[in-house]
Amino acid sequence: MTTDWQFDVPTAGSKHLPPDARYMEALSSQGYGFEVAIADLVDNSIDAGAKDVVIHFLRDGDQLVSLLVVDDGKGMSDEELDVAMTVGGRRDYGKRALGMFGTGLKSASLSHASSVTVVSTTKRTRTAGRRWLMERAVAGFQCDIVDPNYAQALVDRYADRPIMWQGTVVRWDGVKDFPKHGGGGQTDRYLHRTINKLGLHLGLYLHRFLARADFNITIAVEDVRTGTEYLNFGVEPLDPFGYPVSGHPDYPRRFTAALPTVGDVVLDAHIWTPKSNVDEYKAVGSVLDRQGFYFYRHDRLVQAGGWNNFRQPEQHLSLARVAVDLPEAPADVFRLTVKKAGVEASPEFTSALEKATNSKGRTFLQYLADADNVYREARKRSGTTRKPVIPPGKGIEPSVRETITDELPAIPHEDPISFRWQKLDNGLFFDIDRENRTVALNQHYRAAILGGRRGGLNDAPLLKSLMYVLLHQVFEKEYSGSREKDNLQLWQSILVSAARAELDRVGDDD
Length: 510
Fold this sequence. Notes:
globular, alpha+beta, five-stranded mixed β-sheet
């Protein structure tokens, strides 16, 4: 081994290597969730000074055809529109802008649609439009110029709602998530599920903006053939720190973490009220996901929960939430993902947390101990100490799993109990696989149990929840004694009888 190491790599010139057109495929494969992608478009609207944003689902009867995000922001000229539609286009972001990399509009849109059209107008320029069609983009970065007459017609369609004198329309076509066949109520179910999740996501991540009197987001559904408006509602802010009463009289408290690279970082530490049922607490995520740091960049939430390698999430810290506004120049201490859906914090931050204090010398570590104690005391006051259980796993609706985890402490380091449908002898309603921690339900009775509804991994939540309550103790014992075996036989007999009665009802209805 030689010792003539060179600390700088010598070069012999340079050459221009532009990206291959296939880069567009990579750009559209960054794993944007649907709600995250829409939020990225709304960020652009906020940067444009919009006061009203409309998210418009358009349907033709049972078929969803397009999705549009419309705002009354300052709009873009022809030249500005070219920059906006250029991958990584260079533009001057304002000091408080939410945009960062110049890729959000394109990558967010093309992750979910085969075509994205942007039409915009300003008070001083004519309406202009551009379209990225995925098949043309990957063939050579060919961006289409939208016919000016259509561009104006699209803007006019949203005159006074919300566009007054200026604004922008982003149109998605060929949306991958839309049901391929909308009959049988499939489209209605999709819209109900998707709009609910979208409203919660926007309400949470943009809650500081939505709390202002001059900013609104509306989600609407319209039939393009009849003009019928099926839905129109405003998104409400979902403040993750919006508790009616603090869980501890000494909180919230403000702590300061001194970081050599970026200076002081303020930590606003909160302790939630135990057993809260409000959406601001329950709708953020699971009991483990919702605790920890809530990072904001320019008032926009970019991470909702998580301890960023400072510690592991645990049940006893479920009431602890800490608001952190990222510094203007985060250097390499805080790295924001392109999707603005998480923050990577360097060891410098986690080390500083160990020494963080408030103005009276109280430590951040003491805050964690206080949050832990509030949770434990609330459990004691309930009058009962519940025995730890093996937690539920795949096959049970996530919201039900969350409730069970909230109510019952989990036995640590145990694989969860999963549920699945499979073919069994018709004299059995269920079967237990101790080794693989699985409860198998008889596929023969599935259609009757679902009552004609479409099945899925997490279907029949009521039945599976009751089965979990009945059976979790079976997995927590090494073997079943005579009493447990008799109970299992009893439950089999009753459930088979009930399932056959359900089958008879289905037959009578036919």
